[in-house]
Design brief:
The protein is mainly α and about 500 residues long. The protein has a single domain, classed as Hydantoin permease (Orthogonal Bundle), CATH 1.10.4160. Helices cover about 75% and strands about 0% of the residues. Strands 1-2 form a two-stranded antiparallel sheet. A hairpin with a 6-residue loop joins strand 1 and strand 2 (about 305). The longest helix is centred in the last third of the chain and has 37 residues, at about 335-370. The protein is globular, with a radius of gyration of 22 Å. Bound molecules: phenylalanine (PHE). The site of phenylalanine has 15 residues, from helix 2, helix 3, helix 12 and helix 16.
Length: about 500
């Protein structure tokens, strides 16, 4: 049975796949601007502490759960726990829901990549601004659906070839390529005039407020909740992804060392993404300000001079408006950097998406095996991808709330801008990243810490590792992780429902 389930070809193959899962849109897009908006260095330090005391520990626990049971998420919880066996469902529900918008964002990357490619090919043709482009893309639901189908087809082809034949192979080429492309973009970004302001925004405590990028720094609890939510999402935790990937790992491999490498690599790439994105966006904003650019004031409706506060560093506009303008401002070779950048983001999105899909696929494969049948992988992958397409269809058609079918439109409510009813993407995000993920992680740490006891997993962790972290592991999983998770959960509810608790 073990044999037919498949396994990673090598430890490095597993590592690249796990890093591929972790490195995704969360790193390239979420991390840089959340860091900037939360006071730069303060955020970075809180993020590091949470990554070591919570992220690293949960990562080891998830890999151990998967490897010990040799089953995907639902099977692992069922085997290990009596009281918490249903959490497995939560951890299959979340990745399925996340895919509804992850696939659409991946589709936008394909659209932008092709667009830059055609700008490169037809140099001299009229080129639209980032804002115009993004606007016309969002209000063209059929284009978005078509590219989402394309993104899902790519994922389907990878997942159907299996864990070592598909996922591992893709990441073995994709991850090194991503790294090289990231370095190219960083060099370009840091050599733009004005880039140093972006670096200060990222690394000098209090600079974002002092220079006028944001009006005031958020409070400590908000930063804690933001950093925590970001850390969980970025490390692919509480989504069954690491349980699933761990279930295909050989008993000789070192879980502690592997977890450390994944956490460090993910954090390095997130910081590198910050260096690629923020200085470029800031430099371009400064060039516009110096060029006398004006904006329409939202409060007064009047035209006024652009300021630092108008440089868009957050949300979808960072990736698809601000950066597109940066590439266009670079002259004839700008589109080349555009192609490299959006391809890099696309690879990051695919390598994460295939791990999300694999969580659901592994569940069905295991279920077939339990019934004594050999699951038909290509057929299962096809059905999972089709089901994802149905929910993604809604998100793609909605175009971030541009087409009148957002939750608040349909429910006849007021739009709570950037809250859960703003658009279908935010609604799906609220259910998965906002609630199911922190809740799942909280219950998981309670299960390991208090029901099955850390010892159960430590026995598994000792296989392949001579490093003893028993005391640290037990203490973190019993006390620090649950406490951190409660804070994160409250912070997420606060953000999505605009309650203003923090
Ligand atoms: N870690 C991925 C990112 O940063 C998202 C993800 C979450 C992937 C959970 C798999 C599981 O974008």
């Amino acid at each position: 049975m073990e044999q037919s389930r498949g396994s990673w070809g090598s430890n490095i193959g597993f590592l690249l796949a796990a890093i591929g899962s972790a490195v995704g849109l969360g790193n390239i897009w979420g991390f840089p601007y959340k860091m900037g908006k939360s006071g730069g260095f303060t955020f970075l330090i809180i993020y590091f502490l949470l990554a070591v005391f919570v992220g690293f520990i949960i990562m080891i626990a998830e890999l151990a759960m998967g490897r010990k049971t040799g089953k995907g998420t639902i099977g692992a919880y069922h085997t290990l726990s009596r009281k918490f066996r249903w959490i497995g469902w939560l951890a299959v529900f979340s990745p399925f829901i996340i895919m509804s918008f992850y696939s659409v964002l991946g589709a936008y990357c394909i659209e932008y990549m092709s667009l830059n490619l055609s700008n490169l090919a037809f140099a001299g043709a009229e080129i639209k601004t980032g804002a115009d482009l993004f606007g016309s893309m969002l209000t063209n639901p059929f284009g978005a659906v078509a590219f989402t189908v394309l993104f899902m087809v790519i994922c389907y082809l990878i997942n159907r070839s299996g864990v070592s034949g598909g996922i591992e192979k893709f990441n073995k080429i994709g991850m090194p390529a991503l790294f090289v492309m990231l370095v190219i973009i960083i060099i370009r970004s840091l050599t733009l005039p004005g880039a140093s302001e972006g670096l200060k925004f990222m690394f000098v405590p209090g600079y974002a407020v002092k220079a006028g990028f944001i009006s005031e720094a958020p409070g400590f609890l908000t930063v804690l909740a933001t950093a925590g939510g970001q850390m969980f999402f970025s490390l692919s935790l509480a989504m069954g992804a690491m349980i699933t990937y761990g279930s295909y790992l050989s008993k000789q491999e070192n879980l502690v060392k592997n977890s450390g490498i994944i956490v460090v690599a993910d954090t390095i790439v997130a910081t590198m993404a910050g260096l690629a994105v923020i200085p470029a966006a800031v430099a371009n904003g400064i060039a516009q300000i110096n060029g006398g650019a004006t904006v329409m004031d939202a409060a007064t409706g009047l035209e006024r001079a652009m300021t630092f506060a108008d440089i868009q560093l957050g949300g979808p506009s960072l990736l698809f408006v601000t950066l597109q303008d940066v590439f266009q401002a670079m002259g004839p070779i700008g589109p080349l950097f555009g192609v490299i950048f959006y391809l890099l983001v696309l690879i990051a999105a695919i390598s994460s998406a295939i791990s999300l899909i694999e969580v659901v696929v592994t569940y069905f494969m295991d279920r077939a095996a339990e019934k004594g049948r050999q699951g038909n992988r290509p057929r299962i992958v096809l059905w999972v991808c089709l089901a994802i397409m149905v929910e993604a269809f809604l998100v793609a058609m909605d175009g971030l709330g541009s087409n009148g079918i957002a939750p608040y439109n349909l429910l006849g409510m007021e739009n709570n801008i950037n809250g859960w009813n703003d658009c279908w993407l935010d609604f799906m995000d609220m259910m998965s990243e906002g609630i199911a993920m922190p809740l799942g992680a909280l219950l998981m740490s309670l299960m390991v810490g208090w029901e099955i006891k850390p010892r159960t997993l430590l026995d598994e962790i000792h296989q392949g590792s001579r490093l003893r972290i028993d005391g640290f592991f037990s203490f973190c999983i019993r006390f620090i992780a649950p406490l951190g998770m409660v804070m994160i959960l409250l912070g997420q509810i606060d953000t999505f429902f605009r309650l203003g608790i923090f």
